[in-house]
Amino acid sequence: MLWIQRFSGFFSAAMMWIVLSPSLPSSQPAEAIRSSHLHSYLRLPTHIPPFSFRKAPEFRNADVCGLSADITLGEIGVVCDPSLVHVAITLDVDYLRGSIAAVHSILQHSMCPETIFFHFLVSETGLETLVRSTFPQLKFKVYYFDPDRVRSLISTSVRQALEQPLNYARNYLADLLEPCVRRVIYLDSDLVVLDDISKLWYTSLGTKTIGAPEYCHANFTKYFTAAFWSDRRYSDTFGRRKPCYFNTGVMVMDLVKWRRFGYTKRIERWMEIQKMNRIYELGSLPPFLLVFAGHVAPIEHRWNQHGLGGDNVRGSCRDLHPGPVSLLHWSGSGKPWLRLDSRRPCPLDSLWAPYDLYEQHPSSLNSNPNKEEYYFFFFWVKFLD
Ligand SMILES: *[C@@H]1O[C@H](CO)[C@@H](O)[C@H](O)[C@H]1NC(C)=O
């Protein structure tokens, strides 16, 4: 494609002109531009995904679902439709295969898949096109999460993956999502849902701000260091609560209460303390425990069968906890797509495989993707839409 290469310089210049031009003509609401399009222009792709995904089958509402959201309302109008079920998931290159499988599993088990709105949190560009081509009918919006927002707050942990800035994006959902979104289900990227997610959505939180399955038999002491427990200024935070461990990979969040009580700041304050005086060893989980443990609306355990990734250090295979299963979660260091690829899967990894939409892109096998061509393509797609 010689002509592309020859003209790519011109197109790059044209792209920069559009980016820098203050009078960029636009028919889209400012909000939509801010969170999904402008960043696509400003941030050149940092990764070129070396893979693609099969198109998922179409998932349609059953008759009992009633009318689905009115598309003619535009992006903002749709997201504010009160009949929607809101789900937030991160998308990044390393866990993309997991996120796509999670979305696929949710749609497949939902009676009213067209009432689900996905909020994707990203820190790199180029993923929006990929989601659209995999799920052509999906209602979704992509939000840019600036890694610099948390980078200075993150301290080292037992596993490097836990230090990724995007892991901390769940703390900022109340700011990132539109104010009209009053509740959201946050889900990690290493899980599949085997039940109708609307059942989780309609769970009562009572007076609480977040809901999650609690594990009161887990030894809570071990989530914090001796330095934490020996300093009354810190450990007194649990003084008048009965804290139980919960996993932050599946949470139902009341964003109205979250905004009202400023939980984002409270979590950040514990992260600042951690920078000065090491009070825990894990990543984004302990600050959530510090703020919410003992104040969590208990959700049935079936909604987070976690730990299937195995131990944080060794990654051995795990079995299911007893009881019914609505969601399987490969938390821990082992991920099913990596173990399946390595041909040494754990037995339960076969339950993840049916939701995998990954396919090896034929061109990625023998060609080195050309950055210039990619930028050109990128610009052209943006130009056309
Ligand atoms: C809980 O863990 C702490 C620290 O690892 C340990 O000292 C304590 O004995 C444990 N408690 C129980 C009941 O196992």
Automatic annotation (TrEMBL):
Keyword check for Cell membrane: no
Keywords on record: Glycoprotein, Glycosyltransferase, Membrane, Signal, Signal-anchor, Transferase, Transmembrane, Transmembrane helix
Subcellular location: Endomembrane system
Keyword Cytoplasm on entry: no
Primary localization: membrane
Matches recorded under SUPFAM superfamilies: Nucleotide-diphospho-sugar transferases (SSF53448)
Signal peptide (from-to): 1-32
Pathway info: Glycan metabolism; pectin biosynthesis
Bilayer topology annotation: Single-pass type II membrane protein
Coiled coil (residue ranges): none
GO CC annotation: endomembrane system
One Gene Ontology MF term: glycosyltransferase activity
EC nos: 2.4.1.-
Family: Belongs to the glycosyltransferase 8 family.
Name of the molecule in the record: Hexosyltransferase
Species lineage: Eukaryota, Viridiplantae, Streptophyta, Embryophyta, Tracheophyta
